[in-house]
Amino acid sequence: MPRKTSILAPDWWDFTTLEDDLLDDAARLTPQDMQEMSREGFQVVFYDTLEDFYLAEALEYISGWQQATADNPVGVCGPIGPTEQLPLVARLVNSLGLNLKYAHFWGMDEWVIDGKEAPRDHPLSFEKADRELCFDRINKPLSIPEDQLHFPRADTQTFIASWPGVRCAVMQGGQGDIKHWAFNDPVRREGPYRDRPPTPEEYRKLSTRIVNLHPVTVMQNARTSGGGVVTGVPTQAITVGPEQTWQAEKVSIWQAGRHDNPFGMRLTTLMIGQRVMDSAVPMSLLADHPHVQFNFYRPGIGTCDVEMH
Fold first, then answer.
1. Using one digit for the tens of pLDDT, what is the confidence trace for 141-171?
2. From CA 266, how far away is CA 253, in angstroms rounded?
3. What domains sit in the chain, N to C, each tagged with a CATH number?
4. Do residues 185 and 224 touch, judged by C-beta distance below 8 A?
5. Are strands 109-113 and 236-239 parallel, antiparallel or unpaired?
6. Is the per-residue pLDDT at 187 higher than 90?
7. CB pairs under 8 A, 24+ apart, for 130-136?
């Protein structure tokens, strides 16, 4: 039976091409149902305050970097979105006097403009945000050495080569409206994927690369970061791939209800919890990762009830 056409962007794959029964089941989940989706390899955790939520996120950086030694370098891969944890990370490093001499950090993404990564002075630059919100605030004697800060570039070879030999303790992320982690968006309906999206096995083989962004992702970033000016948001980005994601010991997704909506948070929880994998919902492929944690701010979970405004 042919797959449905997206009602969001007909030339793309996305969650609206899934069967209605699955979508309806997700919309009916209560917060208790979501928590009960936890299983071996997948944990659902709730936080009752934003202070606790973002502190717990920041502490994942600290606990990862605390393991780093000269013969066991350890890194963290972190997102822009959310960003509220980043100043907390710097404050904790400084307060604890944590020397990051053997620590590493990988940025998840960067925008691509005219075939090149966005410069650091671009207002939307992810590297700029990481540095200004976190790394520039760490006391110099404690800082990660510059060559151990790995930010994606349009020429991806150096970034890809930085992963082997360094243990990634945790890859953090948020969840976008299109159900991505990093910018691992669904693909266009073209070529071999005109009638079906990539199989999970095909998608899993993708490495760090330049991607075309789903229109919903462009719209979301305009809403969350660009004051709604869609024309100011690039339509391409470099993103860490599934190949690198599966090198991370843990994938930790942080959902405060400010990026994806109540339905989206329920859908990916259901699909990962029940091991339903479909690359039209890229986040669902994490069902096959051995250690995934979904972190929710309880008041941000919301409901899927109709409420007119």
1. 999 999 999 999 999 999 999 999 999 999 9
2. 13
3. 15-300 (3.40.50.1360)
4. no
5. antiparallel
6. yes
7. 130/78, 130/80, 130/86, 130/105, 133/83, 133/86, 133/87, 133/90, 134/86, 134/87, 134/89, 134/90, 135/90, 135/105
